[in-house]
Design brief:
The complex is a heterodimer of chains A (about 190) and B (about 200).
Chain A lengths: L1 H4 L8 H58 L1 H7 L3 H12 L6 E6 H4 L25 E6 L2 E6 L3 E6 L1 H20 L5 E8 L2
Helix pairs in contact in A: 2-3, 3-4, 3-6
Chain B lengths: L26 H9 L3 H23 L2 H18 L9 H23 L18 H10 L3 H12 L4 H8 L3 H23 L1
Helix pairs in contact in B: 1-2, 2-3, 2-4, 2-6, 3-4, 4-7, 5-8, 6-7, 6-8, 7-8
The chains are: A alpha+beta (about 190), B mainly alpha (about 200).
Protein backbone atom coordinates (compact mmCIF):
# COMPACT_ATOMS: atom_id res chain seq x y z
CA UNK A 1 0.00 0.00 0.00
CA UNK A 2 2.84 2.34 0.81
CA UNK A 3 4.50 1.53 -2.51
CA UNK A 4 1.34 2.60 -4.31
CA UNK A 5 0.36 5.60 -2.26
CA UNK A 6 3.69 6.91 -1.16
CA UNK A 7 5.26 8.21 -4.34
CA UNK A 8 4.33 11.70 -5.40
CA UNK A 9 5.25 13.70 -8.46
CA UNK A 10 7.67 16.53 -8.09
CA UNK A 11 6.35 20.02 -8.80
CA UNK A 12 6.55 20.60 -12.56
CA UNK A 13 8.81 23.61 -12.26
CA UNK A 14 11.24 22.03 -9.81
CA UNK A 15 13.63 20.65 -12.40
CA UNK A 16 13.53 23.88 -14.38
CA UNK A 17 14.35 25.90 -11.30
CA UNK A 18 17.18 23.58 -10.34
CA UNK A 19 18.62 23.64 -13.83
CA UNK A 20 18.38 27.42 -13.98
CA UNK A 21 20.56 27.63 -10.91
CA UNK A 22 22.86 24.92 -12.18
CA UNK A 23 23.33 26.71 -15.49
CA UNK A 24 23.98 29.97 -13.71
CA UNK A 25 26.63 28.32 -11.58
CA UNK A 26 28.07 26.51 -14.56
CA UNK A 27 28.27 29.77 -16.48
CA UNK A 28 30.08 31.60 -13.72
CA UNK A 29 32.33 28.61 -13.16
CA UNK A 30 33.14 28.44 -16.85
CA UNK A 31 33.77 32.16 -16.98
CA UNK A 32 36.04 31.87 -13.98
CA UNK A 33 37.84 28.96 -15.53
CA UNK A 34 38.24 30.85 -18.79
CA UNK A 35 39.59 33.87 -16.97
CA UNK A 36 41.98 31.73 -15.00
CA UNK A 37 43.10 30.11 -18.23
CA UNK A 38 43.60 33.38 -20.01
CA UNK A 39 45.43 35.13 -17.26
CA UNK A 40 48.66 33.15 -17.50
CA UNK A 41 48.34 33.06 -21.27
CA UNK A 42 48.53 36.83 -21.30
CA UNK A 43 50.81 37.15 -18.37
CA UNK A 44 53.56 34.86 -19.53
CA UNK A 45 54.23 36.57 -22.89
CA UNK A 46 53.96 39.96 -21.23
CA UNK A 47 56.47 38.97 -18.60
CA UNK A 48 58.68 37.46 -21.26
CA UNK A 49 58.57 40.64 -23.30
CA UNK A 50 59.31 42.75 -20.27
CA UNK A 51 62.20 40.50 -19.30
CA UNK A 52 63.57 40.56 -22.85
CA UNK A 53 63.28 44.33 -23.01
CA UNK A 54 65.01 44.69 -19.66
CA UNK A 55 67.72 42.33 -20.84
CA UNK A 56 68.26 44.26 -24.06
CA UNK A 57 68.40 47.58 -22.22
CA UNK A 58 70.75 46.15 -19.65
CA UNK A 59 73.04 44.61 -22.23
CA UNK A 60 73.13 47.77 -24.31
CA UNK A 61 73.84 49.78 -21.20
CA UNK A 62 76.65 47.46 -20.26
CA UNK A 63 77.94 47.52 -23.81
CA UNK A 64 78.00 51.29 -23.84
CA UNK A 65 79.78 51.37 -20.56
CA UNK A 66 82.37 48.79 -21.51
CA UNK A 67 82.97 50.17 -25.00
CA UNK A 68 83.37 53.71 -23.74
CA UNK A 69 85.67 52.48 -21.05
CA UNK A 70 87.71 50.38 -23.47
CA UNK A 71 87.71 52.88 -26.29
CA UNK A 72 88.67 55.67 -24.00
CA UNK A 73 90.98 53.47 -22.13
CA UNK A 74 93.29 56.40 -21.90
CA UNK A 75 90.58 58.44 -20.35
CA UNK A 76 90.54 56.84 -17.00
CA UNK A 77 94.25 56.55 -16.96
CA UNK A 78 94.67 60.12 -18.15
CA UNK A 79 91.99 61.47 -15.89
CA UNK A 80 93.34 59.79 -12.86
CA UNK A 81 96.10 62.26 -12.06
CA UNK A 82 93.83 65.21 -11.47
CA UNK A 83 90.62 65.85 -9.68
CA UNK A 84 89.51 68.04 -12.55
CA UNK A 85 89.50 65.19 -14.99
CA UNK A 86 87.66 63.12 -12.48
CA UNK A 87 85.03 65.79 -12.43
CA UNK A 88 84.81 65.65 -16.20
CA UNK A 89 84.27 61.94 -16.11
CA UNK A 90 81.74 62.26 -13.34
CA UNK A 91 79.73 64.94 -15.10
CA UNK A 92 79.74 62.87 -18.26
CA UNK A 93 78.57 59.81 -16.38
CA UNK A 94 75.80 61.76 -14.74
CA UNK A 95 74.35 62.41 -18.16
CA UNK A 96 73.79 58.71 -18.58
CA UNK A 97 73.72 56.73 -21.79
CA UNK A 98 72.95 59.77 -23.93
CA UNK A 99 76.13 61.47 -22.81
CA UNK A 100 77.90 60.07 -25.88
CA UNK A 101 81.21 58.35 -26.14
CA UNK A 102 84.04 59.99 -24.33
CA UNK A 103 87.63 59.98 -25.49
CA UNK A 104 90.63 61.51 -23.89
CA UNK A 105 93.06 62.45 -26.57
CA UNK A 106 96.03 64.74 -26.77
CA UNK A 107 95.26 68.35 -27.46
CA UNK A 108 97.67 68.38 -30.33
CA UNK A 109 96.03 65.46 -32.04
CA UNK A 110 92.66 67.03 -31.52
CA UNK A 111 93.48 69.73 -34.03
CA UNK A 112 93.54 67.12 -36.76
CA UNK A 113 89.86 66.59 -36.25
CA UNK A 114 88.91 69.96 -37.67
CA UNK A 115 87.68 68.27 -40.83
CA UNK A 116 84.94 66.73 -38.78
CA UNK A 117 83.76 70.05 -37.49
CA UNK A 118 85.95 69.91 -34.50
CA UNK A 119 86.91 73.30 -33.13
CA UNK A 120 89.92 72.94 -30.93
CA UNK A 121 89.67 74.42 -27.50
CA UNK A 122 91.28 77.76 -27.12
CA UNK A 123 93.30 76.71 -24.13
CA UNK A 124 93.95 73.01 -24.00
CA UNK A 125 94.97 72.96 -20.40
CA UNK A 126 95.36 69.23 -20.18
CA UNK A 127 94.51 67.10 -17.32
CA UNK A 128 94.61 69.96 -14.87
CA UNK A 129 91.85 71.86 -16.61
CA UNK A 130 88.61 72.59 -14.79
CA UNK A 131 85.77 71.55 -17.05
CA UNK A 132 82.96 73.23 -15.21
CA UNK A 133 82.44 75.96 -17.77
CA UNK A 134 80.52 74.90 -20.83
CA UNK A 135 80.59 78.01 -22.95
CA UNK A 136 82.01 77.36 -26.35
CA UNK A 137 81.53 77.75 -30.04
CA UNK A 138 80.00 75.31 -32.41
CA UNK A 139 80.52 74.67 -36.05
CA UNK A 140 78.78 72.57 -38.64
CA UNK A 141 80.71 70.50 -41.06
CA UNK A 142 79.47 67.54 -42.98
CA UNK A 143 76.23 67.44 -41.08
CA UNK A 144 77.94 67.59 -37.74
CA UNK A 145 78.59 70.20 -35.16
CA UNK A 146 81.33 70.63 -32.72
CA UNK A 147 81.70 72.75 -29.69
CA UNK A 148 84.90 73.61 -28.03
CA UNK A 149 84.99 74.14 -24.34
CA UNK A 150 87.55 76.26 -22.72
CA UNK A 151 88.05 73.84 -19.91
CA UNK A 152 89.37 71.07 -22.17
CA UNK A 153 86.10 69.36 -22.97
CA UNK A 154 84.88 69.16 -26.52
CA UNK A 155 81.56 67.85 -27.70
CA UNK A 156 81.22 66.52 -31.18
CA UNK A 157 77.77 65.83 -32.60
CA UNK A 158 77.90 64.09 -35.94
CA UNK A 159 75.59 62.36 -38.30
CA UNK A 160 75.91 58.70 -39.03
CA UNK A 161 78.70 58.41 -41.64
CA UNK A 162 80.94 60.96 -39.99
CA UNK A 163 80.11 59.58 -36.59
CA UNK A 164 81.63 56.23 -37.44
CA UNK A 165 84.73 57.76 -38.90
CA UNK A 166 85.19 60.05 -35.95
CA UNK A 167 84.66 57.28 -33.48
CA UNK A 168 87.34 55.10 -35.07
CA UNK A 169 89.70 58.01 -35.23
CA UNK A 170 89.08 59.04 -31.69
CA UNK A 171 89.56 55.51 -30.43
CA UNK A 172 92.92 55.37 -32.12
CA UNK A 173 93.87 58.75 -30.74
CA UNK A 174 92.74 57.82 -27.26
CA UNK A 175 94.82 54.68 -27.31
CA UNK A 176 97.80 56.60 -28.61
CA UNK A 177 97.34 59.22 -25.96
CA UNK A 178 97.08 56.61 -23.27
CA UNK A 179 100.61 55.57 -24.13
CA UNK A 180 101.92 59.15 -23.89
CA UNK A 181 100.29 60.52 -20.84
CA UNK A 182 102.67 63.46 -20.52
CA UNK A 183 101.00 65.45 -23.30
CA UNK A 184 98.18 67.83 -22.49
CA UNK A 185 94.87 66.12 -22.94
CA UNK A 186 91.40 67.10 -23.95
CA UNK A 187 88.16 65.27 -23.38
CA UNK A 188 86.13 64.69 -26.51
CA UNK A 189 82.51 63.67 -26.16
CA UNK A 190 81.21 62.17 -29.36
CA UNK A 191 77.46 62.10 -29.88
CA UNK A 192 75.44 60.77 -32.72
CA UNK A 193 73.21 63.34 -34.27
CA UNK A 194 69.68 61.92 -34.74
CA UNK B 1 11.75 2.80 -66.18
CA UNK B 2 10.57 3.41 -62.70
CA UNK B 3 12.53 2.78 -59.60
CA UNK B 4 10.87 1.86 -56.41
CA UNK B 5 12.46 3.33 -53.39
CA UNK B 6 12.47 1.19 -50.35
CA UNK B 7 11.96 3.21 -47.22
CA UNK B 8 12.79 1.59 -43.95
CA UNK B 9 10.54 2.91 -41.28
CA UNK B 10 12.15 3.53 -37.91
CA UNK B 11 11.58 0.80 -35.42
CA UNK B 12 10.05 1.45 -32.08
CA UNK B 13 13.38 1.56 -30.31
CA UNK B 14 15.60 4.51 -31.24
CA UNK B 15 18.51 3.59 -33.43
CA UNK B 16 21.80 5.19 -34.26
CA UNK B 17 22.70 6.25 -37.80
CA UNK B 18 24.24 2.87 -38.55
CA UNK B 19 21.18 0.98 -37.42
CA UNK B 20 22.28 -0.13 -33.98
CA UNK B 21 19.71 0.08 -31.24
CA UNK B 22 20.44 3.08 -29.12
CA UNK B 23 20.62 2.01 -25.51
CA UNK B 24 19.42 4.40 -22.86
CA UNK B 25 22.28 6.24 -21.26
CA UNK B 26 23.06 4.99 -17.79
CA UNK B 27 23.09 7.21 -14.75
CA UNK B 28 26.80 6.67 -14.36
CA UNK B 29 27.51 7.82 -17.90
CA UNK B 30 25.36 10.88 -17.34
CA UNK B 31 27.19 11.57 -14.10
CA UNK B 32 30.53 11.37 -15.88
CA UNK B 33 29.34 13.78 -18.53
CA UNK B 34 27.91 16.08 -15.90
CA UNK B 35 31.23 15.98 -14.06
CA UNK B 36 32.83 17.13 -17.29
CA UNK B 37 30.55 20.16 -17.21
CA UNK B 38 27.62 19.04 -19.37
CA UNK B 39 24.57 20.59 -17.82
CA UNK B 40 22.30 18.70 -20.21
CA UNK B 41 23.48 15.41 -18.79
CA UNK B 42 22.82 16.65 -15.28
CA UNK B 43 19.37 17.80 -16.34
CA UNK B 44 18.63 14.30 -17.56
CA UNK B 45 19.65 12.97 -14.16
CA UNK B 46 17.44 15.51 -12.43
CA UNK B 47 14.44 14.66 -14.55
CA UNK B 48 14.95 10.95 -14.04
CA UNK B 49 15.11 11.10 -10.28
CA UNK B 50 13.24 14.22 -9.24
CA UNK B 51 10.00 12.42 -8.41
CA UNK B 52 11.61 9.91 -6.08
CA UNK B 53 13.86 12.55 -4.55
CA UNK B 54 10.86 14.73 -3.91
CA UNK B 55 8.94 11.79 -2.46
CA UNK B 56 11.79 10.99 -0.10
CA UNK B 57 12.06 14.57 1.05
CA UNK B 58 8.32 15.03 1.38
CA UNK B 59 7.75 11.85 3.34
CA UNK B 60 10.59 12.64 5.71
CA UNK B 61 9.98 16.35 6.23
CA UNK B 62 6.17 16.18 5.86
CA UNK B 63 6.18 19.58 4.24
CA UNK B 64 5.89 20.35 0.55
CA UNK B 65 7.81 23.57 0.84
CA UNK B 66 10.61 21.99 2.84
CA UNK B 67 10.69 19.03 0.48
CA UNK B 68 11.04 21.34 -2.47
CA UNK B 69 13.84 23.22 -0.77
CA UNK B 70 15.58 19.98 0.15
CA UNK B 71 15.48 18.66 -3.38
CA UNK B 72 16.57 21.96 -4.83
CA UNK B 73 19.44 22.46 -2.39
CA UNK B 74 20.41 18.82 -2.64
CA UNK B 75 20.59 18.85 -6.41
CA UNK B 76 22.58 22.06 -6.45
CA UNK B 77 24.96 20.51 -3.93
CA UNK B 78 25.13 17.41 -6.11
CA UNK B 79 26.03 19.52 -9.13
CA UNK B 80 28.78 21.25 -7.18
CA UNK B 81 30.27 18.00 -5.95
CA UNK B 82 29.62 15.72 -8.90
CA UNK B 83 33.27 16.02 -9.85
CA UNK B 84 34.11 14.22 -6.62
CA UNK B 85 31.60 11.42 -7.20
CA UNK B 86 33.76 8.31 -7.17
CA UNK B 87 31.20 5.92 -8.58
CA UNK B 88 31.47 3.41 -5.76
CA UNK B 89 27.72 3.76 -5.20
CA UNK B 90 24.90 4.21 -7.64
CA UNK B 91 24.15 7.73 -8.72
CA UNK B 92 20.59 7.46 -7.48
CA UNK B 93 21.80 6.30 -4.07
CA UNK B 94 24.20 9.20 -3.93
CA UNK B 95 21.45 11.67 -4.80
CA UNK B 96 19.08 10.15 -2.22
CA UNK B 97 21.75 10.47 0.42
CA UNK B 98 22.34 14.13 -0.34
CA UNK B 99 18.63 14.97 -0.29
CA UNK B 100 18.09 12.95 2.88
CA UNK B 101 20.83 14.89 4.62
CA UNK B 102 19.05 18.09 3.67
CA UNK B 103 15.83 16.63 5.03
CA UNK B 104 17.51 15.75 8.31
CA UNK B 105 18.85 19.30 8.47
CA UNK B 106 15.29 20.57 8.14
CA UNK B 107 14.12 18.25 10.92
CA UNK B 108 16.98 19.36 13.18
CA UNK B 109 16.19 23.01 12.55
CA UNK B 110 12.55 22.36 13.18
CA UNK B 111 13.35 20.59 16.41
CA UNK B 112 15.50 23.48 17.62
CA UNK B 113 13.03 26.19 16.71
CA UNK B 114 9.80 24.22 17.36
CA UNK B 115 8.79 25.14 13.83
CA UNK B 116 5.49 23.51 12.79
CA UNK B 117 5.07 21.70 9.51
CA UNK B 118 2.81 23.35 7.00
CA UNK B 119 1.31 20.37 5.27
CA UNK B 120 0.99 17.24 7.25
CA UNK B 121 0.80 17.36 10.96
CA UNK B 122 1.98 14.65 13.21
CA UNK B 123 -1.34 13.86 14.80
CA UNK B 124 -2.23 10.28 15.19
CA UNK B 125 -3.86 8.44 12.37
CA UNK B 126 -6.97 7.93 14.44
CA UNK B 127 -7.69 11.65 14.29
CA UNK B 128 -7.55 11.77 10.51
CA UNK B 129 -10.57 11.26 8.24
CA UNK B 130 -11.33 7.73 7.19
CA UNK B 131 -9.37 7.91 3.99
CA UNK B 132 -6.84 5.15 3.50
CA UNK B 133 -4.39 7.34 1.71
CA UNK B 134 -4.43 9.98 4.34
CA UNK B 135 -4.43 7.34 7.04
CA UNK B 136 -1.27 5.68 5.98
CA UNK B 137 0.50 8.90 5.16
CA UNK B 138 -0.53 10.44 8.43
CA UNK B 139 0.52 7.30 10.23
CA UNK B 140 3.84 7.53 8.50
CA UNK B 141 4.17 11.09 9.71
CA UNK B 142 3.68 10.01 13.27
CA UNK B 143 6.71 7.74 13.18
CA UNK B 144 10.06 8.68 14.56
CA UNK B 145 12.11 10.33 11.76
CA UNK B 146 14.67 7.52 11.70
CA UNK B 147 12.01 4.84 11.39
CA UNK B 148 10.15 6.97 8.89
CA UNK B 149 13.20 7.38 6.73
CA UNK B 150 13.81 3.63 6.74
CA UNK B 151 10.20 2.89 5.79
CA UNK B 152 10.23 5.53 3.06
CA UNK B 153 13.53 4.31 1.64
CA UNK B 154 12.55 0.65 1.52
CA UNK B 155 8.77 0.61 1.15
CA UNK B 156 8.09 3.73 -0.90
CA UNK B 157 11.27 4.32 -2.88
CA UNK B 158 11.88 0.60 -3.15
CA UNK B 159 15.55 0.51 -2.26
CA UNK B 160 17.21 -2.72 -1.27
CA UNK B 161 18.46 -3.12 2.27
CA UNK B 162 22.03 -2.38 1.24
CA UNK B 163 21.09 0.66 -0.80
CA UNK B 164 18.90 1.94 2.04
CA UNK B 165 21.82 1.44 4.41
CA UNK B 166 23.99 3.51 2.07
CA UNK B 167 21.37 6.23 1.85
CA UNK B 168 20.69 6.32 5.58
CA UNK B 169 24.41 5.95 6.33
CA UNK B 170 23.82 3.21 8.90
CA UNK B 171 24.61 -0.51 8.81
CA UNK B 172 22.11 -2.79 7.04
CA UNK B 173 21.21 -4.42 10.36
CA UNK B 174 20.15 -1.05 11.70
CA UNK B 175 18.04 -0.45 8.63
CA UNK B 176 16.40 -3.82 9.08
CA UNK B 177 15.65 -3.08 12.70
CA UNK B 178 14.26 0.36 12.01
CA UNK B 179 12.21 -0.91 9.13
CA UNK B 180 10.71 -3.67 11.24
CA UNK B 181 9.84 -1.37 14.10
CA UNK B 182 8.49 1.27 11.75
CA UNK B 183 6.26 -1.23 10.00
CA UNK B 184 4.97 -2.56 13.32
CA UNK B 185 4.21 0.95 14.46
CA UNK B 186 2.42 1.74 11.21
CA UNK B 187 0.34 -1.41 11.44
CA UNK B 188 -0.65 -0.57 14.98
CA UNK B 189 -1.66 2.95 14.00
CA UNK B 190 -3.72 1.74 11.07
CA UNK B 191 -5.43 -0.88 13.21
CA UNK B 192 -6.24 1.75 15.76
CA UNK B 193 -7.66 3.95 13.03
CA UNK B 194 -9.88 1.23 11.63
CA UNK B 195 -11.09 0.24 15.02
Amino acid sequence: MLREQGPVEAPPDLADEVMRQVRTEAGTHRAKRRFQFRRPAVLVPALGLAAAAALVVGISHLGNMSSSESSAGGESRAAAPSAGSANVQHSAEKQGVNAGRRFVISARAARSLSALGFVPPPKPTGSTATPSTTTGSSADSGGGSGSAVAGGKVTLTLRSPQYGVARARLQALALAHARHKSEPSVLVVLRRKP
Amino acid sequence: MTYAATVTLPLTRPRTYDGRVREPVSDEALARRAAAGETDAFEELVRRHQDMLYTLALRVTLSEQDARDCVQDGLIAAWRSIGRFRGDARVSTWLYRIVLRKAYDVLDRRRRTAEPTDQLDLTAAAERPADDRLDIIAALGSLDPDFRAAVVACDIIGLSMDDAAAVLEVPPGTVRSRLSRGRDRLAALLEANRA
